[in-house]
Specification:
The protein is about 10% helix and about 40% strand.
């Protein structure tokens, strides 16, 4: 018999000491961050869905993060595989002295950390296909 458990995906923007007085290092000030869920993970999210503050959910199963320290709950089955994709829009209005932006996704069960990933977006090297074709 498989066990169901609540697992949380926590979005965090790590504190980065600014190098310039007016610098803002929170990626949410410059880019949209989304988590596109596969069908099974979206269903697990719907089952656990509480009134989650700080996110916007699109029709195509993307959870857009709007605030730091957002906790996204899922009811997962043991021995099941789930996938998601990170969607990052092209950063906008960036100071030239800001080399990169960071955010963390941490998988937790209660207070226990199960794993996580730090994402680094190199903003001065960030180019889209449209940008590359402007040559």
């Amino acid at each position: 018999m498989s066990r169901k458990k609540i697992t949380n995906l926590v979005f965090k923007v790590p504190y980065v000491a600014p190098k310039h007085k007016e610098e803002e290092t929170n990626i949410l000030k410059y880019a949209k961050i989304g988590i596109k869920l596969d069908r099974k993970l979206y269903e697990a999210f719907i089952k656990a869905n509480k009134d989650i503050k700080g996110v916007k959910i699109s029709r195509d199963s993307v959870i857009y993060i709007q605030n730091n320290n957002v906790v996204i709950p899922f009811i997962l089955q043991d021995k099941e595989n789930y996938t998601f994709q990170i969607v990052v829009s092209k950063p906008r209005k960036l100071p030239k002295y800001l080399p990169e932006l960071k955010f963390d996704l941490i998988q937790m069960e209660g207070r226990k950390i199960l794993g996580g990933q730090r994402f680094i977006v190199p903003v001065n090297k960030y180019k889209t296909i449209k940008d590359k074709n402007k040559k």
